[in-house]
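Lesson 9: reading folded outputs for more than one chain in a single document. The general rule is that every protein is listed as its sequence immediately followed by its structure tokens, and records are never interleaved. Here is the first one.
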Amino acid sequence: MPEIIIVRHPTSKKADIYIGNELFTSLLYADSLKKAVLYPVNAPGHVSVTRGWPIAPKNGDQIDHPHQVGVWFNYGDINGADYWNNSTRIDTNAKAYGTVRFNKIISAKSGNGKAVLITSSTWINPKGRPMLEEVSTYTFSVNGKDRIIDRQTNLKAIEDVLFKDNKEGLFAIRVARELEHVFAKPVKVYTSEGIKSVLANEKLSGKYESSAGIMGED
């Protein structure tokens, strides 16, 4: 089994996870992200399966939903506050947004075929009051050619909280442009010549259905 190594970089607020000599993913926890994310996520051969924008834009990246970075865990309505859509690119005065504040890496253990990273975070409401304590365990492993990320998250309420039924949650990935489904109308994308509105489905290979079996753009 290949060795999976966790390399911590506290000054730059990230931890890199390597499979052998290849970067698999990084846990990023800068305050500007409003929650910790795994970005990028790479398949073997340094092939990224996550969108680059807004952190490291790639040619053809859609430029919508700036809060959708890599792989993340969040929710759209907790006691009326939106944690899901929070980012530095929106008007936070227009709506009540919450933040998942990263506290610390509790432990990081590398190993042959598996590595485990445990973190602590606090969910803060728009008034700056702690609402939830979070402990998350990330397990990175391999099975043949497959690279696997398991996340177990425990949330402990500090005061009464209500997760209102909401379409935005709970665990998600923003995939690379090549893995998106085809679009019926032009979308705005990043290019070396600036932002352009294009309809270019030739390289897209994704097919996504809702829980009701409906294929669509959301």
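And here is the second record, again sequence then tokens.
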Amino acid sequence: MLLTAAARLGDEAYGAAIRLEIEKTTGRRCSIGALYTTLERLEQKALIETRMGEATAQRGGRAKRMVRVTAKGIRAASEFYDGVIRVTRGVRWEPS
């Protein structure tokens, strides 16, 4: 989900925006601590790259940590979603 949210946001992807995108699309709360822990893990695996953006007055002079999905991250997300589609093909998600 995080890779998808970051890809959807493009050049505007940073922690708080990714969190809002996930919450908006899933209807579920997303802890900012869990989000940043996951960002660090994804960066260690080279699935994303981060950089510090410009400091802004709206943020009290703090800079945003901008996120970009790498080519490796795009491949990993694509393979994951393709796998989900294959494994769920023919499954009926209706209560019995």
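What the second record shows: The chain has four helices and two strands.
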